[in-house]
Amino acid sequence: MRALVLDESGLGLDERRHEPVVGDLPPGEVLIRPTRMGVCSTDLELCKGYMAYEGVLGHEFVGVVEAVCKDVDKAWVGRRVVGEINCVCGQCDMCKGGLKEHCRDRTVLGIMGRDGCFAERFVLPAVNLHAVPDNVDDDRAVFVEPLAAALQVVRQLTIEGRPYVTVLGDGRLGLLCAQVLSTLNATVRCVGKHEAKLGLCEKWGIKHRLLEDVGLRQDQDIVVDCTGSASGLTTAMAMLRPRGTLVRKTTVAPGQMGEGFDLSPIVINELNVIGSRCGPFAEAVDWLSREAVDVVSLISKRMKLGDGPGVLEQAGKPGVIKVLLQP
Amino acid sequence: MRALVLDESGLGLDERRHEPVVGDLPPGEVLIRPTRMGVCSTDLELCKGYMAYEGVLGHEFVGVVEAVCKDVDKAWVGRRVVGEINCVCGQCDMCKGGLKEHCRDRTVLGIMGRDGCFAERFVLPAVNLHAVPDNVDDDRAVFVEPLAAALQVVRQLTIEGRPYVTVLGDGRLGLLCAQVLSTLNATVRCVGKHEAKLGLCEKWGIKHRLLEDVGLRQDQDIVVDCTGSASGLTTAMAMLRPRGTLVRKTTVAPGQMGEGFDLSPIVINELNVIGSRCGPFAEAVDWLSREAVDVVSLISKRMKLGDGPGVLEQAGKPGVIKVLLQP
Fold first, then answer.
1. How far is CA B226 from CA A160, A255, B77, in A?
2. Which pLDDT value is given to residue B141?
3. Backbone angles phi, psi at B70, to 5 degrees
4. Residue of B142, B139, B149 whose CA lies nearest to B118
5. Is the pLDDT reported for residue B233 higher than 90?
6. Cα–Cα distance for residue pair B265/B189, rounded to 1 Å
């Protein structure tokens, strides 16, 4: 089958990747044929060496279950699904303590120890699946994973007294976070570098500013770093008031912090930094089903698996928000 | 007068530093003759270029008020005092919001915009002073500032369900934090690099381990980074369980993070990082008065102002805990 594969030599299109065999599905797992896939900043960072991952790339998808291992409910076959990306053991202290996303023995779809979804077929445990309602089409459903990640920010924050919130970054995740946070009792603005992307905030009625026009005045109560770049942390620290909260969504490959990088504002201003990763899929499906968020406007470009590494190149271009892939 | 002064050329002993003049005391301020002074890691970092500070060094002291500005209560004259190091405006949003340590227009004794206490005389606002009870001698009282910083950690944490707490670093601040935290309903250990320093924990009945003997197993609920070194953050992240809390006391001069420095564990493990700086002086005085903490054992060496830059050299040596200065 066709697949986008990352190995020592970089990202390449493998036209003859070994296809998962129905008879050999691991216990509890299912075979999925993806119909839409999304490219994420994490994919770009993996290509730069983040996590030292090798294998099929990709973790955002909507698809159809084609087959299931014999221990899995056959009702899944033929259903349209999205899937959580952390594949967990169910036995460790994290799993038993309700933090299965942090399972100590996990594999992660297209990120750690498990082939991803940028392929004609891939496998995932049935417990990871969420059925997609009929009123959420593929173009929307493929946003469940990043929307869940945006919703996670809300779960980790306490919003009281109408705080000033800056979403830093006008990319894929930033524009989702801005939409989600703007439903709260907070004064939310999105700050980015791209007038065209910020134009979407205008359409949604969300405050927005170009980074170059914003003073770094230590006056924000909360800053969510969705920049996906090493400099985002320094900017966020400069925007936060003392005792403010920095939600960090950005992961970058090691060694990008630069020479004069300075973390002392965290101590001097007694900042609270909260790392934030994967979020609640069921909630994200619900938001899409209620049309509580606009994801279709985020689609910049549609490409095909066969376009190979060019897909990642496109997703990395300044003007581009979301690149969707079809098989 | 004699003073230890940091300028472009480094730290030096100035034998003829201009002495503060009683008649010229700024409104609200008092003249203090320090009787004991303590050397802190921040002093060492300032000498490396942290904060770009120039002036008399030093912010830990106990001393006697020699004179007061005419608008200050004369009852202070002759009293033995310690003093908070942040000199604040009282007018800005931080001061009015109860966060005066974060005053936007502050100066900080021996750290930012105000000559410090490593001198024969120095000045400080009267509102910063705390009288020292007779049962707390000078050797103990000089520890009020660092003890308050240790107590601040407790203020910023929620301790529930007997968490596993590691105090990382067996230096001045680490040994104070270990003592303070061990009074809580938590399993506390101090992890450091120096057998002799950790021996104090043995004496106090506090668990302790050499760093080289400790597995970095992501199993601690809380880690307090008191290492004062750039590598402390990386070690702390490797010790914390997912969703654990890292209290950061360490400030280092910019650019020491090293090439492969990687902050991604904060996001991947959804860590909570809390910056922690100055703490409650009144509480620290009370702890010393109740003899709830052993500070005298921390004194490694007594030196004099006249020993000049050698004082900082001594304080920076591996085996040394606290260096006290006398005029």
1. 32, 24, 36
2. 98
3. -65, -20
4. B142
5. yes
6. 22
Contact flag A272-B277 (C-beta cutoff 8 Å):
no
Tell me the nearest-neighbour CA distance from B74 into chain A, angstroms: 34
Residue A229: half-sphere exposure toward Cβ, Cα within 13 Å: 15
Phi/psi of residue B129, each to 5°? -80, 145
Q: What integer pLDDT is reported at residue B51 of this predicted model?
A: 83
State the Cα–Cα distance between residues A222 and A271, nearest whole angstrom.
10
What gap in Å lies between CA B260 and CA B156, rounded to an integer?
30
Main-chain dihedrals φ then ψ at residue B204, nearest 5 degrees:
-85, -5
CATH superfamily, domain A149-275, is NAD(P)-binding Rossmann-like Domain (3.40.50.720)
Three-class secondary structure of residue A318 per DSSP: coil
Please state which CATH number belongs to domain B3-143+295-326: 3.90.180.10
- B interface with A, Cβ–Cβ < 8 A, is 50, 93-94, 99, 102, 104, 156, 218, 233, 241-243, 248-252, 254-255, 257, 259-277
Cα–Cα distance for residue pair B122/B128, rounded to 1 Å: 13
Res B53 pLDDT > 80:
yes
Average pLDDT over residues A81-86: 98
Crossing angle of helices A144-156 and A281-289, in 10° steps, is 110
Q: Do A262 and B272 touch (CB under 8 A)?
A: no
Contacts of the segment B154-157: beta carbons below 8 A, 24+ positions apart: B154/B180, B154/B181, B154/B184, B155/B279, B155/B280, B156/A270, B156/B247, B156/B274, B156/B276, B157/B222, B157/B245, B157/B247, B157/B274
Domain ranges of chain B: 3-143+295-326, 149-275
- Pick A273's closest partner by Cβ from B255, B273, B277: B273
- DSSP reduced 3-state for A127: helix
Query: Inter-chain contact A270–B270, Cβ cutoff 8 Å?
Result: no
User: Locate tokens 């944490």: which residue?
Assistant: B157
* Predicted pLDDT of residue A255: 76
**What are the angstrom distances between the C-alpha of B138 and each of B32, B80, B279, B296, B324?**
14, 9, 20, 10, 10
Q: For tokens 């705390």, name the residue.
A: B130
d(CA A156, CA B266): 14
- Cα angle value B6/B9/B14 (rounded, 5°): 50
Cα angle, residue A166 at apex, residues A177 and B88 outer, rounded to 5°: 150
Closest chain A residue to B279 measured between Cα atoms? A270
- Coil vs helix vs strand at A177: helix
For A112, which DSSP code?
B
* Per-residue confidence (pLDDT) for residue B138, from 0 to 100: 98
Min distance A227 CA to chain B CA atoms (Å): 13
Task: Yes or no: say if B117 and B145 are a contact pair by the CB < 8 Å rule.
Answer: no
Q: Chain A: which residues have CB within 8 Å of chain B?
A: 50, 93-94, 99, 102, 104, 156, 218, 233, 241-243, 248-252, 254-255, 257, 259-277
Q: What is the C-alpha to C-alpha distance for residues A226 and A233, in angstroms, rounded to an integer? A: 10
Closest-CA residue of A relative to B153 is A270
- Per-residue pLDDT at B123 exceeds 80: yes
Q: Per-residue pLDDT averaged across B291-308, rounded?
A: 97
Cross-chain CB nearest to B248 (options A93, A252, A267) = A267
Q: pTM score, two decimals?
A: 0.94
The pair of three-digit structure tokens given for residue B107, joined into one six-digit string: 């100066």
**Structure tokens given for B6:** 């940091």
CA angle A290, A296, A298 (to 5 degrees): 125
B270 and A273 within 8 Å at the Cβ level: the answer is: no
Predicted confidence band of residue B61 (pLDDT cuts 50, 70, 90) = very high
